[in-house]
Design a protein that fits this description.
The chain has 124 residues and is an all-beta fold. 0% of the residues lie in helices and 51% in strands.
Amino acid sequence: VQLQASGGGLVQAGGSLRLSCAGSGFTPDFYAMAWFRQAPGKEREGVSCVSSSGGTTDYLDSVKGRFTISRNNAKNAVYLQMNSLKPEDTAVYYCAIYSVIGLCELDDNEYEYWGQGTLVTVSS
């Protein structure tokens, strides 16, 4: 299994970015997909997840209404549209997957495979 995250960069507060994660080596219909982040000096936290079919999503409270997760199973891909970015969103963002059907959880202990991370920096 390989996961390749991209789309990070430097953006001003209030701006937008779209992260992408392209996967290979697994059948997406059987995996939940998620985005996590880790800011300097802080623990990793779950940002958003989406179930195998895309029918169920979950979000970290601080990003609700600003971030939207989506997936394209035909492309083995998951995306994170991030709007109204804040300096506190600055972190390395990781995509991850685990084998489950119909639900997802923002618990990093569940996730089996991880991408390499993409850095998002939001300036004030």
